[in-house]
Predict the structure.
Amino acid sequence: MKSLNSFAAAGQLRVGERTTTSSAWPLWKRPGSKLSRIPYSIKILLENLLRFEDGTTVKKSDIEYVAKWDTSTAAQEINFRPARVVLQDFTGVPCVVDLAAMRDALAKVGADPKKANPLVPVDLVIDHSVQVDHFGTKDAFLQNSLLEFQRNQERYSFLRWGQAAFQDFRAVPPETGIVHQVNLEYLAPVVMTSGSAAYPTRSSARIHTPP
């Protein structure tokens, strides 16, 4: 979605050999701009609103409200949209259930169920289901793994369906690591860009069934 850019905030940012459009870079560079002195947390909110200004969900007045940064009168909601979402399996499964329910509702009214998808890229890491039944033997890991899949077969099958059904949704299989470690080491990009194939073309992790 292209921003209305009411404040002429969009500008070209060149890093190395790559050029991309920045939502607020020109604002920070303007001589005498007080915006360069606001806290980074407010800058993040402001950049986000500038990026998604469409006149409906994000209006010019919304951007002006955040730019003023007046904590004494902070009473207005801010329509912040994250660039990506990371979930673990206990909190992620209900989200996939909600999306599946949306598809059922669309189908019932004769609409295309495939229109129900996450609005931003989502990674779900399965890391909260392990139990230690076997230990102290060479095959303890395999035995615990087999039991984990047997106990969670229905849930894992559902997540595997979701991975194939929804766009911009990946499920990282069990036994890969804790969600924070996997997110930092493998999933989280340093810079998020839209309108590119950076996210969809990355190899998708697949929920597998152990031998």
